[in-house]
Amino acid sequence: MERAKETKTIRRNSLFVKLLGSFLLIIALLLSFNVLSFAFFQTNIHQEIIETNTLNLSSTVTGYEKQLQLVESDMLRFYFNERFSVLLSPDDQPNYTAVPAVKTEMNALLSNKMLHFDNVFILFRDNPFVIEKEGTSNTVNMFTKFYVSEPYGPVFWHRQFAEPYTFRLFPSARFREYKYDKSVLDKGELLPVIIKNKFNNQYIVAALLDADGLYRSLHHNGEDSFFLLGPDGEPLYHAPPRQLSENGAENKLPDGLSFEGNSGYVKRDDRYYFYRKGENSGLLYVNVIPYVRIASQVEKLNLLLLSIMGAAVGISVLISIWLSMRFNSPIQGIIRLLQRSGHPHKLGSSIHEFDWLGRSISDMLRDNNVFDQDLRRKNKLLQRYGYMSKIKSFHHWNELRDLIDMSRPFYLVAFELTFTRQMAAEDQEKTVYYIHEYINLHMSGRFPDSVTLQMEKEQIVSLLFTSDDAEVVADMLHRLKEVFDRDREYGFVTIAFRPARRTPEELAGAYEEVQAMLGSRQLNRDTQIVTELPEQELGALMTSSQEQELASTLLAGSGERTAALIDGLLAQMENSRVSAGQFAELGKQLVAKVLKLLLEHHYDISRLLDGESPFLLLKMCWSTGDYSRFFRRFTNEAAELVANRKAEQDPIRDFVLGYVATHYGEDISLEHVADQLKMSRSYLSTYFHEKTGQTFSEYISGLRMDRAKSMLSTTNTRIQDIAAEIGYQNVNSFIRMFKKATGLTPSDYRRSGAAFDAKEPG
Known about the structure:
Layout: H1 2-12, H2 15-80, H3 99-110, E1 117-124, E2 129-132, E3 135-138, H4 139-146, H5 154-159, E4 167-169, E5 173-178, E6 184-197, E7 200-210, H6 211-218, E8 225-229, E9 235-239, E10 263-268, E11 271-277, E12 284-290, H7 291-339, H8 352-392, E13 411-419, H9 425-446, E14 451-456, E15 459-464, H10 470-485, E16 491-497, H11 507-518, E17 528-530, H12 544-555, H13 559-575, H14 580-600, H15 614-618, H16 624-647, H17 651-663, H18 670-677, H19 681-692, H20 696-714, H21 719-725, H22 731-742, H23 746-751
Parallel strand pairs: 16-17
Antiparallel strand pairs: 1-2, 1-7, 2-3, 4-6, 5-6, 6-7, 8-9, 8-12, 10-11, 11-12, 13-15, 13-16, 14-15
Helix pairs in contact: 2-7, 7-8, 12-13, 12-14, 13-16, 14-16, 14-20
C-alpha cells in the first residue's frame, strides 16, 4: 500500500505531468478568453443574421433595379433610334420595309443572355401587325398560338394603348405555345414589360422577361420565399422556397401586412419579412425567412463556433501532450540509460542539448560497462584464487574470505587428465583448457552455482553447491565419462567423487581425499570414476633380499635376470589388485635404485634410453605389459653399461672414478687426487679428459647433479640438505649450478614430470 502511494506520488510529481499541467493551464486561460468572446458574440449573433439577410435582400434589389434600367434603356432604342424612325409610313401604318432592320436589332438584343429577354414585340395600335424575333405575325396568332397565357390575350395587349403609363411591369404568368402538331411547349414563367412613348402612341414596345432566370441570377439564397410587388402592392412575381412548408404559407403574403418606410423587416407569426423599395422603379421587394431558419442559422453558427473551439482545445491538448512527451522523452531516455547501465544505448534526440547529454551519458555508461565487465572478470579470477587458497590452506586465506561463498555444503569432484603419445605435447595445454570449459559448461548448466577450477597442470576440481542427491551428480559424471571414452586413443580421465556433502570447513580435507582417490585408479586406459577412499597402503614394495638380488644381477651385467626379477614383482602386484598409483610408486623406486647403483659405480647414465627421462617414460605405462617392456629395455641397457665397463679396465681412471664416487660430498680437488696417485696435476687432468671425454670439474659437477636429480625424484629430503650432501655448502650456489645444468630450479624439477610429485616439506 505504501509503495503504491509512493509510486502515485512520484508519477504526480513527474516531469511529464508538470509540463503537461503547465500547458493545460495556458490552454485553460486561452479557453476562458474564447468562452467570454463566444458569450459576447452569441448575444449579437441574432442581430448579425438579420443584418446579413437585410444585406442579401439589398443586393437582390440593386441587381433588379439595374437590370430593369438596362431593359428600359434597350427597349427605348426602338423609339429614339433613327434607324427605327421609318417604322410608320406617312399614313401611320406599319412600314414593312423596316421589318428586317428591326428584326436584326431584336435578335442582337435577345442574344445578350444577361438581359434575360425571352422575346420583344412591337405592336401597332391601328393594325394587328406584330414584329418579333422570328419575323412578323398578327396579334391574334401571336397571343393565341405562340405566347398564350389567360391574363395576356390579344385584348390585353390592345387595351394597353389606352393606359396612361410609359414603363410598366405586369404580373408574371406561365406562357405556352401550341404547335402545329397540337403539342404544347411550356415557355416558362415570363414577366411582361411594356414601354410607351407618350409622344408617339402609334405603336408600343413590349418584352417578355424570363422571370425565373432573372430571379436565379440576382437572388443568391433560394431557401427563402421571394415576392416582387408593384408600386401599388400588386404581386408581380413570387419565387417559392426550395422546400415548401406543409401549409403553403410561403405562396402568398399574409393579409393586413404593412411595410413602413423604404426598408426594414417585419416579424409576423413564425416568419421574418425583409422588405426594400426600389429607388427607381418603386417596386417593393420582399424576402420571407421562417424564424426557424434564423434559429437554425444561429444554432449552426453556434455549433460551428463550438466545434472550432472544441477542435482548437483538442488540438491544443494534443500539441501539449506531444510537446510534453517531446521534452519528457529525452529525460526518460536518460533515466532508462541510467537504469539499464549494463546495456547502454545511444539516446537520439532532435534537441541538440538533449542529444549531447544523451551521447555523453551513453559514453560514460559504456565506459562504466567496460569497467564493470573487467571488474567482474577480475573478481571471478580472485574468486577462483580464493577457492584455491582455501583448498590448499594458503596463509593469506583470510584476505580472500569475502570473495567466495562458504556458507553452503557442497560436493567435490576432481578430474585428472592423462595423455597418450598420440596427443602432441604442444596441444596438451590447449586440450586441458577445452576440457575445463566443457566441464564448467555442463556443471554450471545443471548446477548453476558450481565453481570449476584448474588446480594443477592436468587436474581440474569442481565444487557443486546443490541440494540434489549424490545420485544426480553421479549420473552427470557417467554422462561425462561416455564423452571422454570416445577419445581414449589420445588420453583418459580419472574422476574422483565421494558421494557425501561436505561442509565449508572440510574443503581442504575433502581435496586431500580426492587426491588420494585419484591415485587409487586401476591400471588401464579407461576413464574411471572413483567413489571410495583407497584402503591402507601396502608396506614395502620390495624386500631387502629382493633389493640385494636386483643389485647383484645388475652389477653382474645380466639384464635378462634383472628383468625377470622385476616381472615377478609386477605379477605379484597384479595379483594383489593394487592401484595404478602403487604400480607407479614401484616403478619409481626400481628406476631410482638402478640409477643409484650405476651412479655409485661411476657409470654414465646419460646414455640410457636415448637420453629420455625414465620417469617420464614410466608415466606412459598403463598396464603390466607396458611396465614389463619398459623395465626390460631399461635393465638391459643398464646391464650393457656394466658389461662394457668390465670389458674396458683402466686402473688410473677407475681409481679416480671410485675416489670421486666415494668422496663427491666432500671438498675434493684435482690436486688432491693427483697426490694420491703420485703424479702431477696437469698429467692427470690430460689423462682423465682423454679417457672420459670430460674435465675433472665437469665430471664432479655432473655426478653431483645426477645424484641431486635422483634424490629430488625419490626422496622428500629438503633442498638445503641435498646441497650439503653432494658437496655444496652454499645452497644458492647449488641452485645456480642445478639450473645451469637442467634449466630448472630444484623445486621446479621436483614438481615437473621428470620427478616424483612429492611436495617439499615446509
